[in-house]
Amino acid sequence: MVHIGSNGSLNVRIGHNPPLFVLEKDRSKNNESYDSLDSGAIDVADAHGNYKAGIYVNYQGNGVVYANQYITNAIPSTKNKTQISYASIQGPEIAAYDRGTAQLFNGEAFIDFKNHFQSIANTTSMTVSLTPLDWNTYGLAVIEKTSDGFRVKELKGGTGNFSFDWGVKCVRAGKEKFQVVRQASQ
Q: What is the reported pTM?
């Protein structure tokens, strides 16, 4: 199904294949054709008929959401009759993150990953950030990273008993070959 706006240009397309520029990108990257009539696509165009956003199922059977600039989520505000628009975090990888607050005991702590995070994160790509919640310290260091979590120690042999915030980011398992630079779309 195609919808043409009052200006005579395409503005919505619902079909079984993604737009041509996606097909060409997938074919050139993977040397495979995309001929499935059973995978859906919805594409939205600007006033000139250029695709700007959409969703489709790719040749591997994975759902893809795309936009030419950014993706936002509209959230109703609980304080008044407005809405909050948060933009999706963007970066050069398909990532997973977890964060929290933990407690040092005698200058040391081990942070166990939650099962849901372990199941989707490639922990060999892990980056950890720490923020001590006490001013009277030389700081903190990550001294060990494992697939189960990470170990933190206070610097200079410190023996503090205080809280700290932590954040960990990893590439999603199975998505390590995400291609950042691609051929320009038509």
A: 0.71
